[in-house]
Amino acid sequence: MDASTPLRRTSDVPPLRVGTSDFHSNWISAMAEPPLPPVSPPNESVVALPLSAEQRRVAAIQANLLRALGRPPQLLRVSVTPLWSDHFRVNIFVGDDGGGVAIPYSFFLTADDRGTILRATPPVQRAH
Questions:
Q1: Number of neighbours of residue 57 by Cβ within 10 angstroms
Q2: Domains in the chain, CATH or no CATH each
Q3: Using an 8 Å Cβ cutoff, are 116 and 108 in contact?
Q4: Three-state DSSP class for residue 110
């Protein structure tokens, strides 16, 4: 729309009459049917990309922390944020399908190159 095109008031637009057009009925049927996920051909193999050293370290920290703490009920995710050098902030998110999310456990920790937890504040104690 350019500056020479006059604007139309909403009162100038005819009301939409539900169910009168093919477009509307097709739109309703399309909304009712969820799209199907793409399917790989049976002979096509899925190749996993190799993890970087930092990704392996983060995965090891997550696994080691959950092994020491125990798996909380309704676990959503374990977030590992690198801070500097071998220092990390780890938050454990729990919640339900209703959308309520909480962080019942949060740690500052140090870990070696293999993801072994060397020190944690507060100390990790088995809870589950």
A1: 21
A2: 53-121 (3.10.450)
A3: no
A4: strand
Using 50, 70 and 90 to split pLDDT, how confident is the model at 105?
A: very high
CA distance 104 to 56: 25
Q: Is 66 left (phi over 0), alpha (psi -120 to 50) or beta?
A: alpha
80 burial type by CB count under 10 A (0-12 exposed, 13-18 middle, 19+ buried): buried
Please state, in angstroms and rounded to a whole number, the distance separating the CA atoms of residues 50 and 61: 18
For residues 90 and 53, the model is more confident at 90
Please calculate the CA angle 25-26-31 and round it to the nearest 5 degrees. Answer: 100
